[in-house]
């Protein structure tokens, strides 16, 4: 196996591209790899909270329609504060059959394979465009994909933008054609503080948040009991809208009536639903809530829903040329719904049919001591070359 493949992985892992940090130096390095392989490249710069970020588009092949996009994200989830690490997350280490380092599975491993494939493929024999798109910020807000997807045709110039995209997220080569949206927001309760010895004078925000959680939980249970037959095969584990209470903070001390309580939550609706339908239903039910606490009939709390952020859903049509190519190369025979959201939703909004399938190991994503087996890592390269041969030759 080429040592260059491992070299690129080492270089990519060594850049700290945790989403909140700038990925520009790493993207510039990656652009150099594709330049060197004979691709046209364009860095697509933008800012997130004042931090410079870049996406990379690299393309080759004749200016004809029906090409292929291969895509992945360069940012990673954080390592700081994550218990369980006993290795340097930014150094590739090979122990036995396993290659360790943050991003080896999710998904710098795939990006290294793309760079190696770019050198391996005979570009003169491409009969259709091959376009690589690498993004920033996938793990946080997907703002890389959201900004580059609508700009793609402009960046590609006279090369028609392909209408099929393959994202190599770590799925252990399972193929996903759908995922739910992710809607995230804050619920904030404001009460009235005071000495806990005199509860009649206040209203406890934590107590009222408890009622709000009970109300939202009731809605969660209702949705769980409304299994949608249309999605039973796509999401066999949860063919319904799911919810999660993520974080909660509130109160100052055990002898003070809690004045504030804030909770952050997400839900994931089935891909044919309006991503804000549940938000509006939660808002409606909380609006009907009795806002007294249990200690005082005199005062009421107020409740406020923060502005929601939405990662849109994905529901790609079946039996496309890309699906057939992925089936043929991986040996898989089914496509299903993923339990996570991807950049693909932003491609889909631009009319690009997207499938998710990658050699990284799903159970390794976001874990301490993240790794990939050498076999999976090296097989990924052949998978990319095989799909390109079927799609662009
Ligand atoms: Zn990922």
Brief summary:
The chain is 29% helix and 25% strand. The protein contains ten helices and 19 strands.
Description:
β4 and β5 form a beta hairpin. α1 (3-14) crosses α3 and α3 (108-120) crosses α10. The model has no long low-confidence stretch (mean pLDDT 96). The protein folds into two domains: 3-178 and 313-392, Zn peptidases (Aminopeptidase), CATH 3.40.630.10; 181-310, Alpha-Beta Plaits. The two termini are 24 Å apart. It has helices at 3-14, 24-36, 108-120, 143-148, 152-156, 205-224, 277-287, 321-330, 344-349, 374-392, and strands spanning 40-48, 51-60, 68-73, 93-95, 98-100, 130-135, 164-167, 175-179, 182-190, 194-195, 242-250, 256-257, 260-268, 302-305, 309-311, 314-315, 335-338, 353-356, 371-373. Strands 1-2-6-3-7-18 form a six-stranded mixed β-sheet. Strands 9, 11, 13, 14 and 15 form a five-stranded antiparallel β-sheet that branches. It has a three-stranded antiparallel β-sheet with strand order 4-5-19. It contains ten helices and 19 strands. The protein is elongated and about 80 Å long. It is an alpha+beta fold. Zinc ion binds at residues 73, 106-107, 138, 169.
Please describe the topology of this protein.
Elements: H1 3-14, H2 24-36, E1 40-48, E2 51-60, E3 68-73, E4 93-95, E5 98-100, H3 108-120, E6 130-135, H4 143-148, H5 152-156, E7 164-167, E8 175-179, E9 182-190, E10 194-195, H6 205-224, E11 242-250, E12 256-257, E13 260-268, H7 277-287, E14 302-305, E15 309-311, E16 314-315, H8 321-330, E17 335-338, H9 344-349, E18 353-356, E19 371-373, H10 374-392
Residues 73, 106-107, 138, 169 line the site of zinc ion.
